[in-house]
Each structure stands twice: as C-alpha cells, then as structure tokens.
Amino acid sequence: MNSAKNNLADREALKTETVFFLFIWFGLYIVGMVFIQIFAAVSGLPDFAKILNGITKGAYLEYLDTLKVLQLVLHLFQYLIPALIFIFLYHKKAALKTVYADQKPSVKNIVGSILLILSIYPLISFVYYWNTQLLPDGAISQQKLDIQKVFLEMNSPKDLILNLLLLGLAAGIGEEFLFRGIIQRLLTLWTKNIHFGAILTGLIFSLMHFQLEGFFPRFILGVLFCYLLIFTGNLWITVLVHVFFNSIQVIIPYFYPNLVGNISKVQAIAPIVAITSGFVFLLFLAIFRKINKDYKYIKIN
C-alpha cells in the first residue's frame, strides 16, 4: 500500500515538474520572439521575411551581423535561459546536481568523447547524404539551407568569432542543458527506462531543428549525446562535445568556403569510408564503455 502511494506521489510530482517546465520553456520563447520584434521595430529593420528572402539573393547583407545577434538572443530565450530558470526555480540548491552539472569532467572522458565524435563523423556525413537523397525536393527546406549558406560565408575573423559564438558555444551549451539536462531526465522518469529516455530525447532533438534532410544524422548524434551522459553522469561532457562538433561545422567553411553550398552539391562519402568509420567508432565506444563500467545516470527501479 505504501509503495503504491509513493509511486502515485512520485507520478504527481513528475507531472507538476513537467507542466512547470513546459510553461517556462514556451513562455520564455514567446518573450524572446516579442523582444526581437520590438527591437526590430525600434531599430527600423525591414520585415524579417523580406530580409531573409532577400539575403539569399545578395540583398540586405548590411543586416547580416544584426540578424546573427538576434538569432543568438532568440536561441538563448529558446534554450539556455528557460533551462537555467527552470532548474534553479524548481530544484533550487540541487539544480546543478539534478542535471549532472555539479562535477568537473575527467580528462579521459573528454578525450574519449571527442574521439567518439571524430570517429563517427564520416559515418554521419554518409547518413546525411543518403538522408537528402531519400527525400522528395518538396520536403527539403531549401530556403533555410540558403540562409545557412549565407550565414556560413565568412570573410573575416570577426565573422568566424560571431559564428562560433552563435552556432558553436551558445547552441552547444543551450541545447545540452535543455535536451540532455532536462528533457532526457523527464522522459527517462516518465518511461522508467534510460534507453527509451535517450531515444525519445534524440528524436525530439532532431525534430526541433525542423530540417528533414538532416533528421537521421541529428537523431544519431542526439542519442549519442544522451548515452555520453548516461555513461559519464556528467553534463559538461556532452556540452564540450556538442560545442566541439558544432564548431567544426563553422571552422571548416571558414578555411574551405567552397564546401558551403546547397543540398544538391552534397557529396557522397564512399561506403568503405563510412563502414570503416562505423567500426572505429564501435571500437572507441567499447573502450569508452569499459572505462565507464556502470551507468552513472538515473537508477530506475
């Protein structure tokens, strides 16, 4: 009887926590959208749709840096700010411990995680290519890809730093605190299974990017980040790896601008390279798993 009552109380507490989180998340996203609209009106910026449509054709480029800053602000309101406000309001002094961000990551786990990402990179590229080939043209958000292309065209160190700040640092930290820190935990508790929690989090992580042409590679990466947290019990590992991976996506186009193009220019990775990448990844994963023998994440009864 007491066990049933405790389970019911835990379920009610989880429901309350989930509702509170969703309220904070969506509420602050709306605040961010309103802030940007007000800023645009006060600054005399043209209509956003007009700017985004024109910027892919070489117009309104004088507003490019402003757009990046506004995108950074919106990203903070969508990910990092609601995540931090939620955990510190709801969990108070136990906030960082609850999201596994209260300990320094070990050097061996940092190195191991980076090796995992580097080893799987060719396989991810292979999956990305075939993901694009399986979709009909109408399902590909070409305008969004064209905008990303403009954002990644960097002509100075200032452009590189701004992109690293937006696409590398802010995205890596914000998305990890939200998805791995909060959503993975809630889904794991709801499903009472760390594997279901990881898979569902990876699914939501990929869907939230609203790009079907990158769904499968992002899903794979999302699940991998979840398991890095499960193996290490340290959110800073996933933050560092995510920032590292995103930063690669920025640094490569800076030094090799010819690699920035639309979806039709995506080149296939040779199958042997992808297969080798997969084997090397599995080897590193086995070593990483041996170093981290026990799951250091939520213990589900």
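(the above was protein one; protein two follows)
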Amino acid sequence: MQLPRLRILYDNYPLDVRCVPDWGFALLLEWPELRLLFDSGAQGDILLNNMYAVGFDPATLDAVFISHNHWDHQGGLDALLEIKPQLKVFIHSRFSASFTDDLRHRCKHLHIVEERSEIMPGIFSSGPLEAAMPEQSLFVPLAEETLIVTGCAHPGLEAVLDAVQDILPGKRFRLVGGLHLKSASQKAIRETALMMLERRVYRIAPCHCSGDEARAILPGFPFDECLISGVGGKL
C-alpha cells in the first residue's frame, strides 16, 4: 500500500492559523480511493471548522477509526454522522456499553473490533490493548515501512510495538500520534526515545498528549525524521 497523505485536523498544538487548536486529536489519512479519519477530536464544530479551513469536505469521508473512549478523541463523531450517516465507524469491544449502544442507533455501518485484525484491505487494528483506558492503534503496511498511528498510547508504546510486530513483522516503523509523555520526566522521555530506536521506530511525529518536553527532547535523538507539527499540519 502507498503512504497516505497525512494531515492533522485536531490538536492542541497550533500551526495553521486558519485552524482552531483545542485539546484532542484527529488525523486524516488520504489515499486516492479512501479517506479515513483517525479519531475525531473533542468538539464537532471545531473539527468541521478545521476540515473546511484546509479545504476538506467531510461529506467525502469514507471511514472513522476511534482509538479509545475519551471525549477528546470521539467528541466530534456526532457532527460527522449528521453529515454522513453511512460512514463506516470502527471502535473496539472495550468501549463503554452506553457509548456503543447509542452509536448503534446513529451509525449505519458500525464495526466493533474484537482483536488484532485487518479491518479494511491493507489497514489493520491492534485490537483493544489493555490499560486503565483500553485503546486500539492503527497499522498500515507500506513498501518499506509500517505506519503506526496512536491516539494517546495509554497501554504504553511497548505494547503498541508488540502488537504491530505480531501482525506485521520485519519492517521499520513510522509512528504518528499521541505518545502520552506529557507528564513524563526527562529521564523517562529519553528512555522512551532509546526504546523506540531499539524497536526500529525511525520516523516519528509526536502530537497531542506527547507533551512540550517530549517535543523538545525527541528531535535530539537520531531518528531519521522527527516532525514537530500542529493542527492543520501535513506530515
């Protein structure tokens, strides 16, 4: 599969002055034949504003993948379903029963991911990884690397990397998304950077909950690429 075009549509870090920064995360993955939104931010009006600001029509979305059941990752979903009720929506089996039941009534194509699996041709879910807040990550095998997208990495980056190795071994990794390092010490950030390098993560783009210190420290490590971006940014 080819590398999709990647654009951050929701993030607490500002970048594109046309977009509104806000706590939360949403990343658009675009292929010629598919437009997939990873997470939906916190507020539908802000998400739609940012989509229109960068020239993206939400009615052209094909699917939405929600990593975990936190308001800042699933809060914009209602606004998207109002525009396009036939959206494919992927959540995992550890979402709350109330959220899942409510979504069944509003979503015509709800898919509940039970385990590590291929959810669409060439696109994989880690399945729900255990944590206080269970979370799924998205994996896309490319010609020379595997793209990993994380919402907040609540289960820990090592658990995410274990999961992708089980499904798609043998390649290096490009990692985009929240790394959940906003409260980590400098020592813990450095240890995480070394762990990622040892695990063949060679391109990173820390977003959302990665934290200011991590975004300052990680570019000092010998990744092939460390992109520091914000809402509206292309990766």
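Reviewer note on protein two: The two ends are 17 Å apart (CA to CA).
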